[in-house]
Predict the 3D structure of the following.
Amino acid sequence: MRGSPGSMTVLRPRSAAEAVILCAKHPGCLPLAGGTDLMVLWNMGELNGRRILDLSGVAEWRAVRKTAAGLRVGALATHAELRDDAFVRREFPLLVQAAAAVGAAQIQNRGTLGGNIANASPAGDTFPALAVYEAQIRVVSAKGERVIPFSEFFAGVKKTNLAPGELVSEIEFPFPPSRPRRQLFRKVGTRAAMAISKTVAAGLLWLGPDHRVRELRFALGSMAPTVRRLRAVEEFARGKRLTTEVTAQACNLMSQDVCPIDDVRSTAEYRLRVSQNILAAFLLG
Amino acid sequence: MISFTVNGRKRAYKGPPFKRLIDVLREDFGLTGTKEGCGEGECGACTVLVDRKPVTSCLVPVCQMEGRRIETVESLGREQRLGPLQSSFLEHGGAQCGFCTPGVLMTASVLPKSTAGDPLAIRRALSGHLCRCTGYQTIVESVAKAPRPKPRSRKR
């Protein structure tokens, strides 16, 4: 069955204030941003009869701007806008690389960062970058605003910790403590474009003057029900020199924080091996 | 009512607001140059320009098109007067079955200047298009060898 346009009700708020009121008034409405996920389901006929909250008219949530503390990205900013923003390119390059890995040009022109997050796919390509930049998700409802650390935003596959009536409004990225010595974004899919990741990685590494690890942040997507920071690996590496031996031990600790599965895109074994190879290459420089 | 322009012409759409842009273009406006391939935003066949940016029209509900500038393959030329990009596809065999061609043409029509003649950059820019005939080599050639378009006038 296909989507039936006549069965749909569309609410079109013109401001953030109006959006949260409509969202409170119509529990069960489906927020729509760029539609790159929602419309796929709709085309399959899975959303017929639903009420859509079309957020595309909420101009307040489109801006990408620099703040004293870092970067603020409106939930409705597209991946293309992030990819092409000069400030983001300079200060948050992993976010740029991740945004450029989402689908291809047509998807980047429509898909939004807020929509990507709210959709809560285990394979969201931007998520490892958000995890290592320790993003904060600003959410709003008719009752007020709150900030959820990105690490606490997801509840599981396609599930978030948003309360009913809450919408993602902005994503904040604090400046990292200093310029990382090394940084990495890497997506592994069946092809370079339009692929859902088998594994997707982001890493930031700071070294002390003695070449010991001051701080390591490393996150993987498509390797668990939600994106994961490799806490055990990060903790283990702290204060150590990144020798071949230390790197091998770090890679062995990876499975403490991820639980890859066999599915249509890949196998657990392949995912773990490739992710370990990516981590090893990153640590050994 | 939703108002926008299609190929420079003002249009008012009065049907259901959640109809897909591709269906509005084909069924309501008779612009059947735009093709539907996968219906999932994966293949790029249905690509049109919205405010000069390529998007897959199978994933766009028309309610989001208020005030937007939409361009389809029909804007690139006419049967007896093809545009430079279309002529290049004809000359270099860039179209086989032709189903992916309208979408490819639309993305190719707004390639950034930096990709001019660079096959790798062209491949990257066109990576959101699948050609089931696998005619990629001639598609890239056709784009690379097309004369650079003059800056398009905003009006028609």
In short: The domain at 182-284 of chain A is CATH 3.30.390.50 (Enolase-like; domain 1). The interface with chain B takes residues 3, 5-6, 8, 10, 12, 32, 35-36, 39-40, 42-43, 52, 54, 56-57, 80, 103-107, 109-110, 192-194 of chain A (CB under 8 Å). DSSP finds eleven helices and 14 strands in chain A.
